[in-house]
Amino acid sequence: MLLLTDDAGEGQRLQRALGAAQACEVVALDDALKHKPEHSAIACLASFDPETTEQLREALSHHRTDPRIPVLFLMRDSSLYASTQAEALGATALLPSDASDDQIIAAARRMAEVVVDPAPQTARTESVLEADVAEIGAALVELMQAAKENRQIPLGLLDQGAERLVTSMRRTGIRQWLDFVRRHDDLTYQHCLLVAGLVAGFASRLGIAPGSQKMLAQAALVHDIGKASIPRHILHKTGLLSADEMALIRRHPADGHALLTGQRGIDARVLAVVRHHHEYLDGSGYPDRLRASQIPDFVRLVTVCDIYAALVERRTYKPPIAPAQAQAMLVAMGGKLDQGLVAAFGRLVAEM
Ligand SMILES: [Fe+2]
Ligand SMILES: [Fe+2]
User: Cα of 292 to ligand 1 centre, how many Å?
Assistant: First the structure.
């Protein structure tokens, strides 16, 4: 069982009581999203001020991967407001937080009797992922098509796609996302979906604020939008590219930037990512040969994820590279990349 709490001291006392019925792990609400969802019963002990309630909502949507997972709320007050909040968050049982040990043990035993079969849960994760990827992929296809036809870019779709991506990443985790996207060969814009998943997962791991996570997800989804007009036979060419073809491909950051500049409501940081995701800290990148101090952190983050995704992808002209080897290649790029970020990324890769 998992006990989510905003009070470590009170949590420990309850852990002892709950633990008498089934093994109980206490997780601080602040850290809830960093833990994998792997418990078949959840207890919550927290107040219902707006901020904590929001944290609880996020934590539960992350950990309660199956609606059959029971959720016990340990209530500090018995007001109608508190019980309404608990029920709105999905409580299946309520108990006063100062209930006797016997009452708590009995409640934990009842929760232990609810057996959630992991197999349907896996199937459910797959179908949730499938729906998420389908929606985000459809948004991406539409965005790229609009870019290709020089139409107004549907920024509302980009916003919805980024929002869904961040939620999906929280719900199912980065590894499942990558596995799913990589397994499905027929997905259009697989590279953008991989980069977007890596960026959203990495940003969440770094504890970046939710608003910035969403901006980064938007940026990752459209980072290669400048490739929309490049013929597929050039993008997927197996032989060496001619100088002209190479020049065409290298135009995509500036082309993408030009395309999005002037679209009302686009975040300036998204524009910076689109233009600068191929810049290197030593000034050897393109299109503006920026150097370290000119490249913001959020651009560096996308660059690391972009290179990693390109390495682990299967492309027509190369087999996929194993995660550990791809990570070693990022390290070997030395001063071109932010090695502090690369090291943090490596810790994520090690868990994937
Ligand atoms: Fe690119
Ligand atoms: Fe890319």
Answer: 19
